[in-house]
Amino acid sequence: MRRIITLCTILLLFSIGHSKPNAKWWQSMSLYQIYPKSFKDSNGDGTGDLNGVKSQLNHLIRSHIKAFWLSPIYPSPMVDSGYDISDFLGIDETFGTMEDFEALVKAAHDASLKIILDFVPNHSSDQHEWFQKSLKSIEPYTDYYVWHKGKVLPNGTVTKPNNWVSVFGKSAWTWREERQAYYLHQFAEAQPDLNYENENVVRAMKDVLRFWLDKKVDGFRVDAIQHLCEDVRFLDEPLTGNSNPDDYGYTDKIYTKDQLHTYEIVQGWRQVLDEYQDKAMMMEVYANLTMTIKYYVYGAHFPFNFGLISDTNRDSKAADFKRVIDSWMLNMLVVDGPANWVAGNHDRSRLVTRYGLERAQAVTVLTLLLPGVAVTYNGEEIGMEDTWISWEDTKDPQGCIAGKEGYEKASRDPARTPFQWDNTISAGFSTNPNTWLPVNKNYVTLNLAAQKEVRNSYYSLYKAVSALRALPAVREGTLTTSLLGDDVLFFARFHEDSVYVTINFGNKEETVDLSPFIQPYNQSDIRLTVYYATINAHHLIGTVFKDIRALKIPASTTVIYI
Ligand code: GLC
């Protein structure tokens, strides 16, 4: 085994995940997000469904995925593509039946895949029976939602309680004549916020978790958790200086985000999970690092790490990527939780569109080879690109609220189009030429079937690098990160074996010296095999370098050595 020199000034050596006895399945899984409307349509109606998912489990297995998470599949008017739920305990008929769901759980487990559901606790649909009864003040539902009589101005007019703004833009309050009150919605008007000050709501939502755990799901991805509770004094939030009161950025979210009560509710959900065996809870949280990490302490198995989404882009320097990695890993030393890396999801522009091809590949390698959990949004494994969607075809409420002039900037539809399986009709996603969102025209060449045939494709990179996750060094090795000049990020994973990665983010060739990281160093006996190099996606498996003091890394290239 090669010994490692730790040069404290330039290296950060983490021992996270090192040889943990009794490691749990969620600690080092490759997790795949399925957006059910767009994954695979089994009945030709143009929208994906559960039987479609079941028919494609082999793709997950071949891609070394260990668990998959389904975005919402519950009954919904689909104002927010299923994130507006009208029955927390059912299956929307577009996706199939409860029997289809049970068959999917069984098929997943038979294939040793874990299945994770989206738990959406912040709000329901306004069509949910609870809201309809709350509107009419029918007990016990009267206070299931956040109602407010409004502010009475000196001239007697009743107006909105305060200046809170919805995430999708415009006021977070909507008036209902029936109830003579405003209700709060941190998202669309059709998504009224549940009231966690009400113990009946707290209990009812715990029962939702139990319902699906009894159906043998393996865990939950918890939606929009930072918005769960609000400060009940309902005070105005401070202004940020943004002059548009309809913009989410108009106020500083000190009363509508990251409230202590939210963390306490999460603790309660963890107790529910612990009534069962081996269940996992992961949080979708967009907050600063401190408020994000705090979820580890309050019972989440992990909050998603969105550093690669929020803090890096096509202009970031190698040091920016290193900062994102090191800051998360330093926190792992404190909370002893599994790290995780998320680079894309259904709310963000596709990786290739956001970063450009070469950088997207580098980021894919980072997510797959850094310690802990790797998260992949369906389609990123083949490098799908954002699809231009016309105003007429726009479905996303965030796009619709922005209007014809602003929708292109706001809409999340471009990252949600159907999965490109092959070059047949509707990219093999559906037999129907009319799909719920249009298929990207590039499917003729950019599709899974074509990429399987080609050694230098995005999918070949994804699959080959995913295979490395079985190595002890990647599964449970330590992590070292270092900057080799302004443009090159180096990291290594060490266990009994070693994996080394150099990423040249710059636009000219760099020569790097890896000798400080590898011992014993002797020019004649060091053999570093290039496992993969992404030179415009060229695949160089098998090349051997001897002089590790002067390795050449071409511009915009990631090289993995073993
Ligand atoms: C989460 C989902 C997003 C949805 C929002 C409201 O952020 O990822 O798609 O619109 O919650 O439920």
Description:
With 562 residues, the chain is an alpha/beta fold. It folds into two domains: 344 residues, Alpha-Beta Barrel (TIM Barrel), CATH 3.20.20.80; 85 residues, Immunoglobulin-like (Sandwich). It has 16 helices and 22 strands. The strands form five sheets. An eight-stranded parallel beta sheet has the order 12-11-10-4-3-2-14-13. Strands 1-15-16-17-22-19-20 form a seven-stranded antiparallel beta sheet. Strands 5-9-8 form a three-stranded antiparallel beta sheet, with no helix packed on it. A hairpin with a 3-residue loop joins strand 16 and strand 17. The radius of gyration is 24 Å and the shape is globular. The two termini are 13 Å apart. The structure holds alpha-D-glucopyranose. The site of alpha-D-glucopyranose (GLC) has 9 residues, from loops. Alpha-D-glucopyranose binds next to loops.
Give the key terms.
globular, Immunoglobulin-like, single chain, 562 residues, TIM Barrel, binds alpha-D-glucopyranose
Helix-strand layout with pairing:
Elements: E1 12-14, E2 30-34, H1 36-39, H2 50-55, H3 57-62, E3 67-70, H4 98-110, E4 114-119, H5 129-135, E5 147-148, E6 151-152, E7 158-159, E8 173-176, E9 181-184, H6 199-214, E10 219-222, H7 260-273, E11 280-283, H8 289-297, E12 302-303, H9 307-310, H10 318-335, E13 340-342, H11 351-355, H12 357-369, E14 373-377, H13 397-410, H14 448-452, H15 458-467, H16 472-476, E15 478-483, E16 488-494, E17 498-504, E18 510-512, E19 528-533, E20 544-545, E21 551-553, E22 557-561
The protein binds alpha-D-glucopyranose.
Alpha-D-glucopyranose (GLC) binds at residues 80, 83, 120, 187, 223-224, 284, 346-347.
